[in-house]
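Hey, does this match?
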Amino acid sequence: MEYYLIYKELLLLKIIIMKIGIVGTGRLGICMALCLDNAGYDVYCYDINKILLDNIINKTLETNESKVKELLLNSKLKVLETEKYIVQTCDIIFIFIQTPSKKNGEYEHSYIDYFLDKIKNITDDEKIIVISSTVMPEYTDAVINNIEENIKICYNPTFIAQGSIIDNLTNPEIILLGSYSKKTTDIIQNIHKKIIKNNADIHIMTPIEAEIAKISINCFITSKITYANMIGDLLISKNINPNNVLNAIGSDTRIGNKYLGYGFGFGGPCLPRDNKALYIYSKNNNFNFRICETTDILNYEHLLFQFNSIIKYKTDYEFTYITYKDSSDILEESQKLKLAIMLVDAGINVTIKERSYIINILKDLYRNKFTYFEIE
């Protein structure tokens, strides 16, 4: 029994001292790097943005993401300047490379493809590459079929919200891990167990199952948000408090109260994109996931309902925080910002209470379209 425990401790020590690379040290990548560093791993960062790497080295990274500056100040993160060095140095490489949306809603994989092409035939040693960027279903399989046998590929996406990424990584709702290799699965699973502070379920599956699960989860969330707003709009039109009804609906354990509150429509850099990606994937496979398309339509109709509810009073209107989520600094797909623009264009004076740096961004984009009031 003692020998077995010693063996387990040695195995765990071996896992901890593995060198882990992070490719793409933007908002999400740097958070993962810091979580790994904080858990005791030897972490190396690579990004095509050399200024970003210098800021990591000098611990001068400017970010509004919670806990990043504090963890960076006490970190032992190292930086490597080429794709070649990160692959030669590290045993495991997590990829957080951007996958922007195409016009049709599919994810663009060319940036990941570029990195993978650059590292071909660099090493004969066994390596694990973890694709953590959101990708279209079947992409990981395509990578596996075109990569050297010594490089093991798995898909391990994240579920995060801007402004709370560190907390989301250390206290995740769930973890998806798509791989065909039990050895790879065990290693990545143990890494997550060192990072997380809760008892989140780790779902082991094939890469395509994990790819579909990732975007399907976010599509379900958009549907739930839209459903709540749809019911809420009806209730408000009848002068009924939507929270009383929605709280009752959410108290049914088959439904739950998360994302079932009445408010602004869904937005941000993740939910709208995943909703569109699932829809186009279904179309490409001769299915029509109308719920995805309908959710987008209803999200817009909810915006119109809010606009019409405000405009009929023809009075000034005020927003406290205009970002897609109050704790975020991201304006992408912000339903509040869309509503503010519609109101101003209709002749309503709109005051935006925001943090100073957000106000500066708004002034660059919209000049004096709004009245601004600075808050902490």
In short: Residues 316 and 349 are 5 Å apart (CA to CA). Residues 207-237 form the longest helix (31 residues).
